[in-house]
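pinned: reference chain
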Amino acid sequence: MAKQIAGICELCGRSDVQLTEHHLTPKEEGGTFLPTAMLCIPCHKQIHALYTNQELAVRLNGMAELRSDPELARFVKWIRKQPPEKLIKTKKSNERKKKK
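pinned: its structure tokens
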């Protein structure tokens, strides 16, 4: 994971959170030099727990797509209510487990 800085998460909008760089198209799918977004650790972890790199590259490779995804939207609605210092445990979704 890249160097962390404090700021505002581009997905959930929480402020004063530790941010990490999320490659909108995963590096493994050719996104090394493509756009990135600065996300809080919980949002970043949740994205990778829910979706495969291939899914992210094909259908969720932009902030608008991530924000409009129903499964992720439920998480974002919840995390917005959490204090900035809250870190969460993530598990792969059952759907993602089946895809492997």
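why pinned: Residues 53 and 72 are 15 Å apart (CA to CA). The chain has a mean pLDDT of 87.
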